[in-house]
Design brief:
Length: 416
């Protein structure tokens, strides 16, 4: 079965989560993704525990494998003339270049966007950064929580009068960075290549993805309301973030459940189901009210399993709050094939990962085309395919401009 992104070739110079997840999405749908790593430790996440024993030392990290299936790896020293020339030679034959350095790093090395355009005018160059390629925070360091703090999302998350609450998932890294980058790349490719309604421009362009910008866009409705009436929302006061008793998590006898009875019909179904129709009129009251105390008491009177059974009889948007192990083994996750296995060479245990989140009916993604690559596993093969002779490849390796597979972390560190 043909994959929808088959034929798209991606050079991935990024490290860690945002770029790794972006190129994972592209790879699962058929793009040929080549990780371009340095001749030292490569992508730092390779060395993060926990590990799958038996697999290659540079490809045994569960965190690394979760982001890097269906990819290959080459090692180049971009501080050397030979390494830069090798990268530019690869650029000529690729469609997309993805990086996550601070703005200007590749320009200073002499292999930035404008230089790449000289080699390949059709290259789509995607740069993921914290605050974008321009603006007052262009050169600032940061992580997910910093971006969420600066754009107002962190400050709005939590209980009224309580501390800001960090989410367990990386909203800015993934939702603001990886997903926006994947969308931007596909939009730029569509413009370049055209479609049934006209020919494309044939030209690439830069895709400037700021994780702060992307995360800010998640506040579209919140910002829209603020722009309209000028009311500044505070933590715990947003209707969808804690201010309504009909839309909150509740503690039960042995755990927690989530009640999302925002529409009146769902709230009415819950109230009638528990035999408390007098609470129907209190749907939009605030936490701390007398009605809220009564709702809390009702939830504490039953176990989570009892509330699950209740939800099966009463359509009221009520679900259990699961621990991670429970979620991974749930009927929903199994039915949607959201836990999958890959065959990682040498691994003594089965490598389990999250599956492909987008389901296409005719051309679904494939999570198992390639295992996670060892650091520099494909250096020689890629350079030969790029037109270097065997002797030239040997010279690049001998000079340190390129490096083959690292046998161990110590080997990788010594080259750094």
């Amino acid at each position: 079965m043909s994959l929808p992104l088959r034929g798209i070739r991606v050079l991935d110079l990024s490290r860690l989560l945002p770029g790794g997840f972006c190129s994972l999405l592209l790879a699962d749908f058929g793009a040929e993704v080549l990780k371009v790593e340095d001749t030292g430790m490569g992508d730092y996440i390779r060395w993060s525990p926990p590990f799958y024993e038996g697999a290659h030392e540079s490809a045994r990290s569960a965190l690394f494998l979760s982001l890097n299936r269906n990819k290959r790896s080459i090692r180049l020293d971009l501080k050397s003339d030979g390494g830069r020339e090798a990268l530019l030679r690869l650029v000529r034959e690729h469609d997309v270049m993805l990086e996550s350095f601070r703005p200007g790093v590749l320009d200073r090395l002499g292999v930035g966007y404008e230089r790449m355009r000289e080699e390949n005018p059709g290259i789509v160059y995607c740069a993921i950064s914290g605050y974008g390629q321009d603006g007052p925070k262009r050169d600032a360091s940061g992580h997910d929580m910093n971006y969420l703090g600066l754009i107002g999302l962190l400050g709005l998350t939590g209980e009224l009068g309580g501390e800001p609450v960090q989410a367990a998932g990386q909203i800015a890294d993934l939702g603001g960075g990886a997903l926006m980058a994947a969308f931007g790349i596909l939009a730029a490719l569509r413009e370049r290549d055209g479609g049934e309604h006209g020919a494309g421009s044939g030209e690439g362009q830069m895709v400037d993805v700021s994780m702060a910008d992307g995360a800010l866009s998640w506040l579209a409705m919140v910002a829209g309301a603020y722009f309209a009436d000028g009311t500044v929302p505070r933590r715990g006061e947003l209707p969808l973030a804690g201010s309504l008793i009909c839309y909150r998590p509740y503690e039960c006898a042995d755990g927690w459940v989530s009640l999302g009875a925002l529409e009146p019909k769902f709230w009415q179904a819950w109230c009638r189901g528990v035999g408390r129709e007098e609470l129907i009129a209190a749907q939009f009251e605030r936490p701390g009210s007398a009605a809220h105390v009564q709702v809390q008491e009702i939830f504490r009177s039953r176990t989570r399993a009892a509330w699950e059974a209740f939800a099966g009889e009463h359509d009221c948007c009520l679900e259990p709050v699961l621990e991670l192990d429970e979620a991974m083994d749930s009927e929903l996750v199994r039915a949607r094939e959201m836990v999958v296995e890959i065959d990682q060479p040498g691994a003594e245990a089965t490598v389990r990962q999250l599956g492909v989140p987008v389901k296409l009916t005719r051309t679904p993604g494939d999570h198992a085309r390639l295992p996670g690559p060892a650091l520099g596993e494909h250096t020689e093969a890629v350079l030969l395919a790029a037109g270097y002779s065997g002797a030239e490849v040997a010279e690049l390796l001998a000079s340190g401009a390129a490096a083959g597979p690292a046998e161990s972390r110590q080997d990788a560190t010594l080259r750094a």
